[in-house]
TrEMBL record:
SMART domains: GAF. One of its GO terms (molecular function) is L-methionine-(R)-S-oxide reductase activity. GO terms for cellular component: cytosol. This is GAF domain-containing protein. InterPro entries: FRMsr_CS, GAF, GAF-like_dom_sf, Phosphatase_reg/MetRdx. It comes from Sporolactobacillus laevolacticus DSM 442. Signal peptide: none annotated. Pfam families: GAF.
Length: 149
């Protein structure tokens, strides 16, 4: 991971390490990513509740409130417990379009002690916006975040 992304993770940790409220930490985490990442139009969290994903803190336009497991990019990443990086959401079977401007998406499952607690979802109006480097950074970001949730 490059030094810029290492610094970003350190800033995240400084924002959340002394706060025990999960919603406050997720809110600051989404705001921080919104500041760090360019060419994105939505960044936020969906939290697992009664076997479905429910909208959590985010930055961007209004969003879908509930997503079934296995549905859309978020539900599929959650069900598989694997990062999904989608270069063109219009080619993803069953994509759920909350913002018509979104063209690419990355979803990172949030796993704590082996259990799924939610997902980090980021959309971009640019096709193929998310690189392997972005994925590695966001995976480390999510791992750091869940230690404080």
């Amino acid at each position: 991971m490059n030094s810029v992304n290492k610094t970003r993770i350190q800033v995240l940790e400084s924002l959340i390490k002394d706060e025990s409220n999960r919603i406050a930490n997720l809110a600051n985490a989404s705001a921080w990513l919104n500041e760090c990442l360019d060419t994105i139009n939505w960044v936020g969290f969906y939290l697992l509740e009664d076997n479905e994903l429910v909208l959590g803190p985010f930055q961007g336009k209004t969003a879908c409130v509930r997503i079934a497991m296995g549905k859309g990019v978020c539900g599929t990443a959650a069900q598989e417990k694997e990062i999904l990086r989608v270069p063109d959401v219009h080619e993803f079977p069953g994509h759920i379009a909350c913002d018509a401007a979104s063209r690419s998406e990355i979803v990172v499952p949030l796993i704590k002690e082996g259990a799924l607690i939610g997902v980090l979802d980021i959309d971009s109006p640019v096709c193929d916006r998310f690189s392997e480097d972005d994925q590695q950074f966001l995976e480390a970001f999510a791992e750091t975040l869940v230690t404080y949730l």
